[in-house]
Amino acid sequence: MEDKMRFLGGQSRKFSLYHDLMQVKVRDILLISSPYDAWVMEEDSRISERIVSEYRGLNLSRPPRLTWVSNIEEALELLDVRFFDLVIIMPHLTNMDCCDMGRRIKDKIPGIPVAMLAHKQLAVNDETFCDGTDRQFVWSGDAELLVAMVKNLEDLLNVEHDTSEVGIRVIIVVEDSPRYLASFLPILYKELVRQTQAVLEEGLNSEHRLLTMRARPKILTARTYEEAMVLFEKYEPYILGVISDVRFPRMGILDGNSGIELLKSIKERRDDIPLLLTSNEPENKERAAAVPACFVDKNSPDLMSEVRKFVMEHLGFGDFIFRDLENNEVARASSLYSLEKTLRKIPKDIFMRHCQLNDFSRWFYARTEIALANRIRPLREKDFPDVETHREHMLTLIRERRLQRQQGVIVSFNPKDFDPDTDFLKIGAGSLGGKARGMAFICSMLARNSWLHEKYEEVVITAPRTLTIGTSGFDDFMEMNDLSYLATTDLEDDKVADIFREAFFPGWIEAQLWAYLKEVKYPLSIRSSSLLEDAQYQAYAGLYQTYMIPNDHSDIEQRLKQLVDAIKLVWASTYYKAPKSFSQRVNQRTDEEKMGVIIQEVAGQQYGDYYFPAISGVGQSYNYYPFGKMKPEHGVATIALGIGKSVVDGEQCIRFSPKYPKILPQCPTLQDSLKNAQTSFYGLRLGNGEVYDIHGDANLEKLDIADFEDSVPVRRLASTYLADEGRIRDTAAIPGPKVVLFAPVLKHKLLPLPGVLTDVLKLAENGMGGPVEMEFCINIFEDGRKPEFNLLQLRPMSARADLNRIDISDQELKDAVCVSSHALGNSEKDDIVDLLIVRPDSFDVAKTRQIAMEISAINNRLIKQNRKYLLAGPGRWGSADHWLGIPVEWPDISNVSAIIETSCDELKVEPSQGSHFFHNITTLGINYLMVLDKPGDFMNWEWFQNQPTIEKGEFISHLRLPAPVILKVDGRSSQGVILPAKGSEDYCLLRECIAE
Length: 996
Hints:
Layout: H1 2-19, E1 28-32, H2 35-44, H3 47-52, E2 65-69, H4 72-81, E3 86-89, H5 98-108, E4 114-118, H6 124-128, E5 135-138, H7 143-166, E6 170-174, H8 178-200, H9 206-214, E7 218-222, H10 225-235, E8 239-245, E9 248-250, E10 253-255, H11 258-269, E11 275-279, H12 284-290, E12 294-297, H13 303-314, E13 320-323, E14 329-333, H14 336-343, H15 348-356, H16 359-366, H17 370-376, H18 387-404, E15 424-427, H19 434-448, H20 450-455, E16 460-462, E17 466-469, H21 471-481, H22 493-502, H23 507-519, E18 524-530, E19 546-549, H24 556-572, H25 577-585, E20 595-601, E21 605-607, E22 610-612, E23 615-620, E24 636-641, H26 645-648, E25 654-656, H27 670-676, E26 680-685, E27 700-704, H28 712-717, E28 719-722, E29 727-729, E30 738-739, H29 743-746, H30 753-768, E31 772-779, E32 788-796, H31 810-815, E33 818-820, E34 822-824, E35 827-838, H32 848-864, E36 869-874, E37 896-902, H33 916-923, E38 927-930, E39 938-939, H34 941-945, E40 949-952, E41 956-970, E42 975-979, H35 985-995
Parallel strand pairs: 1-2, 1-3, 3-4, 4-5, 6-7, 6-8, 8-11, 11-12, 15-17, 16-32, 35-36, 36-37, 37-38
Antiparallel strand pairs: 9-10, 13-14, 17-20, 18-19, 18-20, 21-22, 22-26, 23-24, 23-31, 24-25, 26-27, 28-29, 28-30, 31-32, 33-39, 33-42, 34-38, 35-41, 40-41, 41-42
Helix pairs in contact: 1-9, 4-5, 7-8, 8-9, 8-13, 10-11, 14-18, 16-17, 22-24, 23-24
């Protein structure tokens, strides 16, 4: 007992040292970015909240504060009057040169840390050196990176003091790529936080809690061989592990042997330090084994999990794994108590092997058990008369330490904390995900702009009540069920769904959902909210699943089961074929994606056995297809009766510009109005006390408008066709077939939809720093309540390449084999030699599904050959309605470079907008040319049919040109052309024909 008290007393006397750890904190951060990026970092990522959570509410220090400015001039003015610990620059703003900005800031404040946070992979020259910034990172929206940046800077500023005073451990990461550095750091810091939080619950007192949080290992980064060796030599006694790339600068030159030489040098001096080599080249695995060091392939879809495995197993961040002399696992321990129990039983040779490799002390260091590790690490076999004496001494030290600790407590969910009228709730940790970020930004935007509500006081502008599950729920589910292998499999979607449905659901989420459903009885929409979904540069819009449930069963357990099934299936869609193929196209690893979930009130009303809103729609602040007096900046909206599946799937809807709501491009004549008007809509089938399975859109039914003529939406929004008079009357109050053209809204101002759309889109565009797209719906009531405008989703539209000026000359218009007056994008391409043409003579609108399957098969072959191609054919590509076009989905055309939509006598439809299909192809820079039936537009079918044929299928001809075509799209005029390669035989023949 006396020994124990002396130990405790000694620890108490040392607490003053631990109070001095992490003396330098990042308290004020200056952010130079768009308003949307500033909001995401503060509201969604919540740097301040995430860091203060490490202290578990102890109020030991003030968390960092973000201050936002939109340009360098404001930043320099602010630096004159305030001190900042860190400056973060986000480079996608117009006319922003980050390196130059960083230099100007450092000239003003020498030594101030400046970090660059980019949305996309930087150019090669920018990756290796930018003298205006200290570190560059590529951000996919993961909140973990933001925390890692702050903690990494704090580690650098405190490492010298904390290692020399207390012996804090150090992990060195050598990486010159901003993208991979942004992947590694969050993993390492997340494991650090996991361990410290696990120990926090067991803290005996506040001093021990402070010790735990401040004594975690530090992570230092290096970009060159020389930087790495300086760090190693300076902190050699404290090195916990080294992670190194293979190729990085050495003596100012990019050297493919730098990583190997570095690890060899470290191994020669310290053979007990775990080493990890990372490389894009699998053949380096043998070189790593020769060091020896662990190895991970950067191209592996499992990169994240492999790095995590190294961190957990070799750096001591996970369970302690006992291994025999052949390196086979024989036992493991997750806590001091289980380690103590296992130590008593393991064979002597295994015990001594772990002692000789310093595995025990490394595990304690990783868990911030600094004092215990410092006492165990110096122990050697020669210090004891035999192995058992050595073992007993170590058991005594562990037992003493364990007895200091308090058992952890489980925090139970308290249903009294839940207010069912709360607008926006979040359970779990991690990021909200892209879609939920947009929702949260909507709520923030509506709350801050009271003028909008005052201007449209006759309408309630709001957002549905929303509950989100953070990405930590997805992480726990995947880890609990060991499902990470799905990232590398090629299973059918149905099989993946079955695996997820059978998997165990985290109990901590289920308990909170039960309390939620106890108070909430309205229909719910369960939607995906992944990290990359609705991102500005790599949007995964529409690739994941959404499920709607009636939530009306009398038994809460039945409702809970249905909700849990829906959440599982949303998570499962992460590993469906469509997102996987999209990830491959954008060079994104599937295992990097994380899935949050939105549980949202379905905005609508009950009509008989169904539930739906009066109007659903998509609004865009930039119109790629202006018509007549419309201009692109006027924006565009697409609306439909009922649930918005009709809109996002590109079915029959009404499209208009909020600036000119009376102009309907697809309804210039009576015949066109009757042909293009909506005749059916989607509604959510209510359960009426029954529970039905959740799968696909089975609970959404396509309903005939004629069957709902007595419902409020049809009576208030429809017009009537009078066959005897040969005209359409803008009212539904007279007998006759109903035609939904929304004339009461667009012509007669039943509600100010055009004005609301204009102002909300402009507001959102200013906030997000660029064009936006939003989903909305409207409820109309007859009981005196105001109409309700619900904002369902907000996302940035894909960034347009405005900096590249594309000019199409009159001569090129004459030389072209295809001219479009309605083309998406802004680019010039000269790398397309493969063409997939839907032959006009074989096209059959009744066989569009078969055509899609034939395209998919050729696409898969071209993927293996790494060949991009041009796709051309009639109708609306990607339409869910196979009578309107060829219903390809993303996996069917994932290697396409450009698409041409043509007209034919059998199939003439208006351009589709607002669909996820269009959002994704514009995000990827895939040009979309629509050849309309109008003067100036044409498709030279004879030229295409005369090109060399690789394969001729039932509907598709696969052509391969001797020289690539030239594709040009001018984003300012929406004009696009395709030209034969200059100098080619076809080009010369074409010029001769023109001359004749």
